[in-house]
Amino acid sequence: MSQEGVRLARDALADIDLVAQLRGAFSEAQSIMAQTLAEFGLTEQRYHLLLVVAAGGSDGTVQGLLARQLHCPESRISLLVHELGDAALVEALRDRPDRRRVLVRITLAGEAALSQAICVQRDALHGLIATLEVTEVTRLAELVARTYLGLDLCVSVRTPPQSKRPARKGRARLGPLPAAQTG
């Protein structure tokens, strides 16, 4: 086998290894997220519903639209809304102009639970890539683009520009520190 063939085979194995690492980290992040959601009394489906309802704003989201957005039967959405309503995370109200329609709005308790769950999810996802080197992250982005999107692109890493301003030095204190700041 030529050196080029060996290099290509090695690169292919490295890509597979990187995808395996990502899959393992993703699985771990999902597990952490599921455990955390359970602490809030949420399943993944309830969490998704809460996200969609929150995105609907203060006017609320029509229950039938929730069914379409979550790709669930309306009967399942109705049950989820009832469960989240019992937990005081959402409220369901009849639409004034059309009493047949049910509007679902997130409550303050729902916003608080959702905010905490989002923070935990962000931390879990950060943990997913925190162990990867920058070169692995760029290779992964290229691999995902090529494999799943059919795009052949090159990802480069930009470092933040250095400030052109000189560093400011602190001023010398002219007198003793006030008593409240010592000790």
Throw out a few tags for this protein.
183 residues; mainly alpha; 2 domains; three-stranded antiparallel β-sheet; 6 helices; 60% helix; disordered C terminus
Topology:
Layout: H1 3-39, H2 44-55, E1 61-62, H3 63-70, H4 74-86, E2 90-94, E3 102-106, H5 108-130, H6 134-149
Antiparallel strand pairs: 1-3, 2-3
Sheet having the most strands:
3 strands, antiparallel
Q: How confident overall, as mean pLDDT?
A: 80
Structural category: mainly alpha
Strand content: 5-15%
> What is the number of helices?
6
Strand order of the largest sheet: 1-3-2
The outline comes out as: elongated
Protein name: Winged helix-turn-helix transcriptional regulator
Domain HTH marR-type: 15-149
GO biological process, one term: response to stress
Region (Disordered): 160-183
Describe what this molecule looks like in 3D.
- With 183 residues, the protein is mostly helical.
- The protein folds into 2 domains: 1-39 and 109-157, no CATH class; 42-106, Winged helix-like DNA-binding domain superfamily/Winged helix DNA-binding domain (Arc Repressor Mutant, subunit A).
- Helices cover 60% and strands 7% of the residues.
- Strands 1-3-2 form a 3-stranded antiparallel beta sheet.
- Strand 2 (90-94) and strand 3 (102-106) form a beta hairpin.
- Helix 3 packs across helix 4 (74-86).
- The relative contact order is 0.11.
